[in-house]
Amino acid sequence: MYIVTSFIIVFLSVPLIRKLAVDHQILDFPDRRKPHKNAVPLLGGVAIYAGVVSGLILDPASFHLFSGLLLGGTLILIVGIIDDIYGLSSRIRLIVQLIAAFAIIGFGSRIDFLPNTLFGNAGEVILTLIWIIGITNAVNYLDGLDGLAVGTTAISATFFAIIGYFTGQHEICTVSWILTVVCVAYIPYNVKRNKIFLGDAGSTFIGFTLASIAVIGNWASDNVIRLSVPILILGVPIFDMVFTTIMRIKEGKVHSISEWINYTGKDHFHHRLIDLGLRTRGSVLFIYFITAALGISAVLISRTEDTIIGIMAIFQGIIIFGAIGVLMIVGAKRRSGWDPAE
After folding, report:
1. Can you say whether residue 196 is alpha, beta or left, with left for phi > 0 and alpha for psi between -120 and 50 degrees?
2. Diameter of the chain by CA atoms?
3. What are the distances in angstroms from CA 88 to CA 95, 97, 261?
4. Residue 338: what pLDDT?
5. Which pLDDT value is given to residue 223?
6. Which long-range contacts (CB under 8 A, 24 or more apart) does 147-150 make?
7. Which of 164, 184, 232, 309 could, after both became Cys, cross-link 298 (CB 3.0–4.6 A)?
């Protein structure tokens, strides 16, 4: 029931929110680094947020477990809306993301695999903060082509739901399916002619939600190999963020965390695919397939007790990341005028 409700709320509310954004001129205007040619309404993330919250309210157990997610996600959304309308400094956005991440930790969830010592606990808190802020921004970076961020989020959330079901984590399964259906309900409005964008508010909210699901869920149990489960499921945004960050630092484009958050450019994975000759829809579908392949590897790891099979699944993921890296390098060279025949 809660899944159907979430879907309906998103599907019916998007046109109303779009009209509100148009009436108040809350628009994303085109420029040289953006593929769209006309101004597009923002605030699509408000519908996503409404769908997630309504679904969790109808499931009391999930609502209680994900109280930190709702608190932190609400902060992320509000600040994102302000940023979409008026613009905010990267420092303010980073501070809010830190507060939102601490909300998850404050409600008792964090990355948990280090020894139960002072340094071990401090290390887990630091890793949790890095993970949540990193994934939040990584998904935001993916929001560069129509349907890309919401589509990959829907696929990733689906695999979290599948593994949550297999491992008996009802609440994880619930919130993951809710996130999946709200993204699916939103996709038609993100790719049609009279479209609406998520805005930073929406893309950071779904990124924060995915990061929180990964932290709150119990993936490793007594098998350290299973720590790779959320890393594989979120492999595309993680690799894209890490690779582009390394390249930007190497090329002297960013020198601080603030510059890292603020920097915008056509050097992400999806941009590189377009540089290689794929059209927008082809690039999006290609990334969907990569995300699904990594998700299947994660399911295999979560279901096997055989360490060797788990290691092989991880190596499969590494090979996929290697292929992505090659494509990004070739795409970068294509953009700079490199001829592969030389």
Report:
1. beta
2. 62
3. 12, 13, 12
4. 52
5. 59
6. 147/187, 147/190, 147/191, 147/284, 148/270, 148/283, 148/284, 148/287, 149/198, 149/203, 149/206, 150/48, 150/183, 150/186, 150/187, 150/190, 150/198, 150/206
7. 232
| 260: CB partners within 8 A, 6+ apart | 245, 248, 254
Could you list the mean pLDDT of each consecutive 10-residue stretch along the chain, which spans 342 residues? 89 93 84 66 93 88 84 95 89 93 91 81 91 92 87 96 91 94 93 83 95 87 70 89 81 72 71 76 89 90 76 81 78 60 46
Quote the CA–CA distance of 35 and 145 in Å, as a whole number.
Answer: 8
* The model's pTM: 0.89
Give the whole-angstrom CA distance, residue 47 versus residue 15: 10
Decide if 40 contacts 197 (C-beta within 8 A): yes
User: For residues 129 and 103, what is the distance between their CA atoms, to the nearest angstrom?
Assistant: 10
Q: Name the residue among 65, 54, 97 with its Cα closest to residue 78.
A: 97
Cα(45)–Cα(171) distance, rounded to whole angstroms? 23
| Residue at 68: amino acid letter | G
150/134 Cα distance (integer angstroms): 17
Q: How far is CA 75 from CA 52, 131, 326, in A?
A: 15, 18, 38
∠ CA 106-142-149 to the nearest 5 degrees? 80
Alpha helices, H only, the chain: 2-23, 44-57, 60-65, 67-85, 90-106, 118-142, 148-166, 170-191, 199-216, 228-233, 235-250, 257-262, 269-275, 280-303, 307-335
